[in-house]
Amino acid sequence: MADEVTQKKLKEAFRLFEREGCIEVDDLGIIMRHLNLNPTEKQISALKTEMGPNVIDYNVFEAVMSKIVLTSTYDGATLTLDTEDQLLRAFEILDPERNGLIPSEKLVQLLKSQGEPMTEEEINEFLQFAQSKDSAIIRYEEYVNLLCSHLKK
């Protein structure tokens, strides 16, 4: 059983997407990210299968999601978001000159080919948020600060 704080978070997240007492199974990924979890598409797909074909009522949602939120894991994998320091270190790997800049083209190529490839739409959204407005570069320290400030709200 989830503690009071977890129950409150789950109820708030559920209510944001609720229609007639249920949420759409397709909203699970968005809801999980709202709860500061970072599932892969494969994990979201497995959850959709586990929770039902179309819509989910609150009881099913709470039963499954409370375990995930309390442990920050699903199917043996951690779902927590990276810390600001971890994100900076990850970007620094792509910046051998350590000047705080990564060409957008280089990052786009990696986002399409490494790990779980991002879609064009996801990449465009990322670039709109992360890319410098005056050139095709990503000032990753600014991006990480901006990203983490949004997550703290």
Automatic annotation (TrEMBL):
It comes from Naegleria gruberi. Coiled coil: none annotated. PANTHER family: DYNEIN REGULATORY COMPLEX PROTEIN 8. This is Predicted protein. One of its GO terms (molecular function) is calcium ion binding. InterPro entries: EF-hand-dom_pair, EF_hand_dom. It comes from the Eukaryota. Residues 82-117 form the EF-hand domain.
